[in-house]
Structure formats: structure tokens, C-alpha cells
């Protein structure tokens, strides 16, 4: 029999970014708040996503810098990669950040934390059961609060709410490929548990995750092949950006098999010694490669009993209005489970909108957000907004800092409609930082000319944005305008 619990002003279901932001935000405003998490606080981002992947890329970048030392006049020995030490540092960095998402910090903020499976029992009621029966792996699962047991799988408690935010996130999707059904492959949820370096790695999916990890493992010394039905990596990005990333990865040893159905059996028989050009061999190698599936995300809606709460959902996630309200006016949803933008920063932004609307009958709208994103390959690919518009392009070869750094393979491309910025692609070191600035200018209704007026330290990559603004302004000097200006200057000679 479930124990009856208190009534909360806000209950956040899910302890990832969106749930944590909802809980901390509401508690900071004085609301009575509960957070329910079935596995590990911090969600994918901390445990198996952004944090460990960027720690791995940091090690890969060190190798890349050593390889690039000779052209700048520095003689360096060939790097020796201690893969075990790389992964140990990854886990150490993750542990350093974990306190930000901890039970102790939530409790200190006034949030009641429940560990277990949440399921709606009605339009304003949630039942919490043990998470043990679902088999979720947890390397850092804390003891449940209030002395509860995780062993039985029985209902532990019922709680009621005035408002709730569903923030259960997403999980790796499994594509329909022969041979995957029986398991035997990794996803982002397990690849960072490796302690021994794979000699070979097959990555299914040439999106952001696939490309980032392909480059990281290749630089660390693993032989990598990436397969995808798309005809180019990062197929949703600007084709020129895609081409630059492909050249960079191929230059570091990554092989691609693109534009055809994925033949997992052939990939598992891969022997690099017979890999001619873009064709994969058929002979069995000395050791079977590891397989990593990085083929998109699936929203986590199962087990929530959303029907009992009157919440509409589909395989694409929970249906929400522009105010992030579900078909139950008491319940909102934020993050991956209800957004096309499956990024940590998007989860943060949508959670802020959800709690504002939930607690104060606000009218904040998700459509008002300008959400950039970044693929952290080397070079990075930063993107925001619409690419179907006129564009001004500045090649990195025209940017002094890029020339000095030897990083001229890239560009800044700003899309606009009559000067008003509607989108941007940046391929450059630190593109993520640059595109964040572009997103801010877009959010405030900025124009290309605004880049000309901004003053940035010299030399920096931000100079490319100023050059884009200057290039736009030059287009305004039409032959007719130039003729009028010439007459003006003649009057004062």
C-alpha cells in the first residue's frame, strides 16, 4: 500500500537538466517542490553525454595539437596514449561536476528528492515505485530518502501536485538494422565505461555524436569507420560545413561508408588492411570491432501512465502548446521529451519557460527562443536558425587569427533577409562561443550591420562577424548610391 504524501506546488519528473532547472527554480521562488528520478541525477548530460564526451575530446585535442606542432616549428615526439588514464580523467572530471546536481544541493535548496519510478494515478496525483525492477544501471545511485527500500518494486508513496513538469528526457534510438536486435553494441550510455582501448570501432550514425566520437577515438589511436544511410556526415548542417568536417576526420584516419543501407555483418568483418578507398573489406580481421550506435534519440514516455492524467503523447514525445502546457492544464513538459531541440541548453531554456507558466499563469512561449547548437568536432560547427535565405560568407582564410593559428579550413556564413539575421553557420575553432553571440543578436532583432558596430579584441575569430557586417554594408552602396555620394563629395572639394 502506497504511503500518502504531501501536496506540492510543483513536482518535476526527471533529474536531468530540465527537471533540475524546474526544481531549483521553483524552490528558489518559495514553492514547495519535489523531484522524482529513477536512476542518476544529472541525466544524460552529466553521466553519459556532454560532460564525458567533451572530456574525451579534450584528450583527443591534445593529440591533435602534438600532430600540428611540426608545421609551427616545434619538434615534438609522437604521442603515446594511455587510454586507461584518459578514461580515468574523464570519470574524475565528471565527479568534479556531479555535486552541482546532487541530492545534497537539492535538499539544501528545499527540494524533496524521491528515487523511483513515477506514474500518474490521476490528473493531479503521482505514484512512486521502486526503480529496481526496471534494471536501469546506476554507478552512483544514492540511498533513497526517508529510509525507503528499492528492493520490492511495490508502490512507495503517492503525492499530489498543483503543477507538474514532465522532464524525463530521451534515450538512444535503435535503428532497424539486421544484427542489432540481439544487442552486442554500445551507445552513449555505455561507451564511456570502456577502460581498454578498442583497436577498431564501427559507428552507426554520422550525426553530431557519431562524428565527435569518431574523431576522438581516431586521434587516440583507434581505427574507426562511420556508416550512415545519409550521403554525407552532419546531413542537417550546411553542405560546406559537412564537407569540411568530413575532410578533417578523414585526415585523421576516419573512414566513411555513406549513402547506402548499413550492412552490419560486413562492418563487423572489417579489416583495415584491405580497406581500399571508400570500400569496406570482407575478410575477417584479427579482432572484431566494437559497434557504437549513434543514430538519434527517442523520448522517454513509457511507464508514466500519461493516459491516467489525460496527457496526449506519441512516439515523438509529449504534445505541448507553445507555452509547454500538455492536454492536462496542470501538467507541463520540458526538455527532450517534448522538444525537437534535444540539447542540454534547450532543456534548460524550456524548463525556465515551463515553471514561469506553471507557477504564475505566465505567457512565455517556446517559439520566442533562439536556440543555437554546436558539434564539437575539430573544427567545431556552430549553427543557429534558418539557412534558407541570402547569405554573406567570410572564409577563415580572410581572418587574421585563423591565419596565425593555421586554422583556415572553415567559414562564417550569416543568413539574412534584407539585412535582418535569420540564421548562421560557423565552422571554426570555438564556433560554439561565436554562434552564441549570433543567437543573442538574432534574439534582439539584430541586423548584419550590427556586427560592423561591435568592437572585438584583435586578433580573434570574432573578426569574421565584423567582416560579414562590413560585406553587407558594401552591398548597400549600389551604383546609384555611389553616384550620389560622388556628387556629394564634389560639392565640398
What would you note in describing this structure?
- By secondary structure, the protein is an alpha/beta fold.
- The protein has three domains: 3-41 and 102-171 and 298-368, FAD/NAD(P)-binding domain (3-Layer(bba) Sandwich); 191-293, FAD/NAD(P)-binding domain, CATH 3.50.50; 379-475, 2-Layer Sandwich (Enolase-like, domain 1), CATH 3.30.390.30.
- Helix content is 32%, strand content 22%.
- It is built from 15 helices and 20 strands.
- The chain has helices at 17-28, 43-48, 50-67, 83-97, 103-108, 208-220, 239-251, 264-268, 306-309, 344-360, 400-405, 431-443, 448-453, 463-475, 479-491, and strands spanning 3-13, 33-37, 111-115, 117-122, 125-129, 155-166, 170-172, 200-204, 223-228, 255-258, 290-293, 297-299, 313-314, 317-318, 331-333, 373-375, 380-385, 390-395, 411-417, 420-428.
- The strands form five sheets. Strands 1, 2, 3, 4, 5, 6 and 15 form a seven-stranded mixed sheet that branches.
- β19 and β20 form a beta hairpin.
- The termini are far apart.
Write the layout of secondary structure elements.
Elements: E1 3-13, H1 17-28, E2 33-37, H2 43-48, H3 50-67, H4 83-97, H5 103-108, E3 111-115, E4 117-122, E5 125-129, E6 155-166, E7 170-172, E8 200-204, H6 208-220, E9 223-228, H7 239-251, E10 255-258, H8 264-268, E11 290-293, E12 297-299, H9 306-309, E13 313-314, E14 317-318, E15 331-333, H10 344-360, E16 373-375, E17 380-385, E18 390-395, H11 400-405, E19 411-417, E20 420-428, H12 431-443, H13 448-453, H14 463-475, H15 479-491
Helix pairs in contact: 1-10, 3-4, 3-6
